[in-house]
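Same chain as my last thread, 287 residues:
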Amino acid sequence: MAYALFIGDYSYSSWSLRGWLLFRRFGIDADIHNVDFQDKDVAQQMARHAPARTVPTLVMDDAVVWDSLAIAEELASRHPEAGLWPADPGLRALARSLAAEMHSGFGALRNECPMNLRTAYADFTPSDATKADIARIEELWAHAQKRSDGPWLCGDYSAADAFYAPVAARIAGYGIAVSAPAQAYVDQHLNDPAFRRWRAMGFAKGATLPWYARDHAQKPWPGPAPIPAEATDTGTPENQTCPYSGDPVTHLMRMQGRTFGFCNAFCRDKTVADPEAWPAFMQLLEA
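reply #2:
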């Protein structure tokens, strides 16, 4: 079965993050297609895959699935071995309930705090409605982790965690105060290698979109600080082929006084953004 996953901007599309994690976190291959949030209406760009009008959208040989929760269920049906939902029936029911409430709720948090992985804010004060959403989220997280004994919401990482990854990003990015256990769960997402790779790709592909910005003082991103690296046009790379594609080197990066090569600007720039997020590069670095 060939899968084509259409996603929006890495830095801003919270629903796309959920859809992408459902593939990458569970080892399911898909060809990724980026829908441009800057130049065209999303529905217009998705017209050839009607009735889809939004992202993420999954296009398969026999169907089009244009809703993230439907994508989760369809992948779980087609790949039961992948473990998108917990094997334990009680935890599976809990995970599905958690994902469904996230999918349909928390409108105040969504509207007041659009996901923006390019920046973090220092002086945001949530409205009463957003505070109520956060209180409910904390209640759900505490119940799930008490029931499952962690480390994620329902034991091992499940589709429910993929659905709450953008919620964690909002709490972190807007500096919203939560309990210590809830903050620990947020930090798990910020440290998750798949989440870090997604965020790094946002700096490598796509522009800063001003309509997502909010008028608050900015602060450094609260997640792990990346190893400093920079793109360069000069130097002799240690490697002759790209660590990701195996294709010949055309673009260069400098880090820790060493020069490395990649097959295109995207491969280089996503690595510059967060070198430790990319196992293939780290193997090259440590070789």
